[in-house]
Amino acid sequence: MICDQTERDIEQLRQWIDECAPGRMVFFGGAGVSTESGIPDFRSADGLYAQRYPYPPETMVSRSFFDAHPREFFDFYCDRMLALDAEPNAAHRKLAELEREGTLSAVVTQNIDGLHQKAGSRNVLELHGSVWRNFCMDCGAPYTVEELLALREQSPDGVPHCSKCGAIVKPDVVLYEEPLDDGTVTAAVRAIASADLLVIAGTSLAVYPAAGLIDYFSGDHLAIINRTPTPRDAHADLCIATNVGEVLGY
Q1: 3-state secondary structure of 209
Q2: Which of 23, 158, 164, 242 could disulfide-link to 105, CB 3.0 to 4.6 Å?
Q3: Which reaction does it catalyse (predicted)?
């Protein structure tokens, strides 16, 4: 049950959204935006990091682990990181609606699931890449995720290899120890810096450099929607501790 103060905070945020000048709202989201679509997050009690694997999940999604143990990486990646049948939830749909109406200028996301695009959002800045894109590490040939899975199924070592040159095909996702894409970061900084309203949702703001991008915000209202406290709560005008879909699903 949502308490009276939370209800008032939700109404205040919705009022800010309704009053926001065209193109002056930016949304910054993390794994908690997709949990209502059935995709587990990382740091909650039942998230990926709480589950037991031969190696810590943080290690298994690092570049050094990918290079040293590609088969184990793909076992984990395909089992735990892919949710290809997931559907957008109320939050994804509302953000797409706000973009169509002209209020929202950009979605900046740490997620790799592609659900914002599936809901209809167009200007989505994917800081950590996307599971839907894959590429050969040698010749650069592109592959869909379905093609990646087919190559893995055909491979005797369980690792997808390029049908053109034989090199490993890597998901276009940013692993630990890898840099973010410069162009995506620049676009995110530009969007956040020009926003009047920044809504941060579903993220612990613990992963850098992505979390540091919000330092570029100097607009009127900063709202954080997250079920647990974040290091930036003291700087926010509103902190709403509930599901993202409950707040934006109107």
Answers
A1: coil
A2: 23
A3: N(6)-acetyl-L-lysyl-[protein] + NAD(+) + H2O = 2''-O-acetyl-ADP-D-ribose + nicotinamide + L-lysyl-[protein]
d(CA 145, CA 173): 12
Evaluate whether residue 171 is within a structural domain: no
Name 136's bridge partners.
169
Reduced to 3 states (helix: H, G, I; strand: E, B; else coil), residue 236 is coil
Q: Is 83 helix (H, G, I), strand (E, B) or coil?
A: coil
111 assigned binding-site residue: no
Residue 60 lies in a domain: no
Domain that residue 212 falls in: 1-38+89-128+179-250
Question: Looking at the DSSP assignment, which residues form a beta bridge with residue 161?
Answer: 168
Catalytic residue status for 235 = no
Number of domains comprising the chain: 1
pLDDT digits (tens, 9 = 90+) for 74-99: 999 999 899 999 999 999 999 999 99
> Do the domain assignments include residue 237?
yes
**Annotated binding residue 42:** yes
Q: Can you tell me the distance from the alpha carbon of 193 to that of 198, in angstroms, rounded to the nearest whole number? A: 10
CATH code (residue 185): 3.40.50.1220
Is 133 assigned a ligand-binding role in the annotation? no
Total Cβ atoms within 10 A of residue 244: 29
Q: Which residues lie below 8 Å from residue 186, measured CB to CB, with a gap of 6+?
A: none
- β-bridge pairing 129-136 and 169-173: antiparallel
Sign of CA dihedral 182, 191, 218, 119: negative
Question: pLDDT confidence of 45, banded at 50, 70, 90?
Answer: very low
Among the listed residues 69, 92, 116, 128, the single catalytic one is 128
Residue 203 labelled as part of a binding site: yes
**N- to C-terminal Cα separation, the chain:** 17
Q: Is 31 annotated as a binding residue?
A: yes
- Judge whether 9 lies within some domain: yes
